[in-house]
Amino acid sequence: MHGASLTAGGGAAAARHVAVEYNSDGEWAHHLVTFVRAGLDGDEQVQYFADATDPGLVTRTLAEHGLDAESALRRGQLMVATADETYLSGTRFDPDAMIGLWQEAVDAAAAGGFRGLRAIGEMSWGTRDVAGAERLLEYELRIHREVFERLPLTAWCFYDRRLVSKDDFRLLTRAHLTRSGATAHDDAPGLSVAPLAVPPGFRLAGSAGYETRRATASAAAAIAASPAGPVTVDMSALGHLDIAALAEMSTAARRRPSSSPVRLLEAPPALHRMLDLLPELGEGLEVAYR
Fold first, then answer.
1. What does the DSSP 8-state code read for residue 279?
2. Which residue of 75, 112, 240, 265 is most buried, as measured by CB atoms within 10 A?
3. 189-290 has which fold?
């Protein structure tokens, strides 16, 4: 191993935060072995956060595919934990606390002499009745800029289609700019939210109404927490939003740590009509065009 001061290089942030879909144990094993082998070969530390999978199965599967998992565990290059010990280590899931844990994990990998940090997280816990699970979408939206653009981390979020509903799958995986094994769900109704690669911000597509309150609330929370100066919300693919969604955006803009406005790019006509009727909702917002 070689000591190093780790930086956020090693590829664009979008390519280092990947939603991985699988439908069978065989697909799970393929993704697992591919990811871990690359990390061990690259002198990186590799961490696996299990939820539905028994931790022992992770190491047995690696060994069955020719990887010396036991040796990697002994020297600290491989770590296998559970979601309860990581994402859910507090009384409830807290995106701010988890973002802080990533910084600590990267620092610990550097102190251990590793070239970088890789992690796999099984995300099925986020679709159960777990305290704070409703904030998982907010977390996935925030970490593109707050974690992957800042830290030398590569992480694959594992989504087992057998455990995650179709609606949750679509919503959560589309919060990633890179997806692996994903089938086409772009024509499904509803609202999807994703981070923007550039400029700092988010992209809303579909319809923001009563049926999509969860996604709208998550987007608003991510906007409010964004450490960037100006934040852009690309609405060019948004067909509709109601006044409650606009009010959430306005509240989020006022809560931001920066006084810079939230730019609503290519907003639909309904938004302009609502701002004409209720100009107070425009506080902190700036309607913009390309």
1. G
2. 265
3. Transcription Regulator spoIIAA (3.30.750)
What is this structure's pTM?
0.92
205-233: buried (b, 16+ CB within 10 Å) or exposed (e) per residue? bbbbbeebeebbbbbbbbbbbbebeebbb
Band (pLDDT 50/70/90 cuts) for residue 182 is: low
* DSSP string for 51-63: SSS-HHHHHHHHH
CA 160 to chain centre: 16
3-state helix, strand, coil in the chain (%, to 5): 45, 25, 35
What does the alpha-carbon distance between residue 257 and residue 262 come to, in Å, rounded to a whole number? 12
Residues 190-226: tens digit of each pLDDT: 899 999 999 999 999 999 999 999 999 999 999 999 9
Longest dimension (CA), the chain: 66
Spans of all domains in the chain: 1-186, 189-290
